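User: Hello, beginner here. Can you help me understand these amino acid letters and fold codes? It all follows right here:
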Amino acid sequence: MSLTGSTFLYTLVALSVVAVALPLVLWSRIRGPRILRGAARVLMLMFAQGTAVALVFVLVNNTDNLYDNWSDLLGTSDHVQQAADLGADGTGGIALSRLPRVRQHFREVGGGVRVTQVEGRVSGVNAEVYVWLPPQYHEAAYAHRRFPVVELLPGYPGSPKSWFGSLHANTQLAPLMREGRIAPFILVAPRTTLLPGVDTGCANVPGTVNADTWLSVDVPKMVRDNFRAEPAPKGWAVAGYSAGAHCAARLALAHPDRYRAAVSMSGYNDPAGERDSLTAQDPALRRATDPALMLARAAAPPAVALYVSGQPHDGYEDGLALQREAKAPTTVHVVYIPKSAGGHNMALWRPQLVPVFRWLTTQMDQHRITARGTAPRVPSSAGSTHEALASGTGSRAAAGRRR
């Protein structure tokens, strides 16, 4: 029975109703010695509490897309087939242009979203990738067009489905793409939880996991093999929230030859911001994967544009740290979100998607392929800038922080 399926949810609802009804009907009717009557009543209360807790967990999990399946929940899911040492650029010296083209089989999952299982030939990772195509993709007028791509990274724990489920990226952005208010991006959401109970930090750790290569080499190759995607880095960006935000900034700064821009919503620089971080366990790797330190130590500033949004003590200060270290041609656009907008959750990030994709449209110079009209003017981050997110873009709901 699927963890996120309707059958399991409806079963829990039914069990919860039974768990409430049992004590109401049987409490005073139980016969036998006092100790047995007491034990039976305790079991009924435990059954009621257990089903209630399970139902609440499933409802929260289905809303926030934290765990895809039982293997993710129980920490038994391992998507790493091998983890060879691939060197500094994460390719292992492989000539990527010579790798054969692989046609993927996609399964529709609703809302125009499709999913496929990708065998990472360079990274050694085998995992699912979700893809959504913009409205213009199948129009005759765009038959020979290539489209820009944004890789979407979830937090930890988190499922790539969250971008199309909880965050409603496809339903929010499709009307704006049709109207020409933002560019028609291909949205690609790959799995990032590759090892049981561990946040990889989207990094390569020889002998353990090649998460960087999975995201920056294998997934883009799959997209280019199967869709009319623009070449890198001009037509590629990466975006994430929470732990995925840390990954997005780090990947773009590490690979300016693969990404033109990155979006970080409520992210962090120090990998230790996630208590289950693999990269935080080694001091050298921790420093090497801190985006602020990467900028400070860069031999040449990368030609990358960063959009960083956050609240006080939840991403904002990290964005300012990136701003301080950035030197042209690197640009950093920091967006301050007030605490009143809500907590570290989906309700905070959902309303940020439209401003984020307007910014991406401008930064990636995609006005030319919008459907009609011109893209809206957004502050270009030519130089370091910060601004307050307009009131109403965040949620009033508050929740505890979990990276």
Notes: Residues 40 and 286 are 53 Å apart (CA to CA).
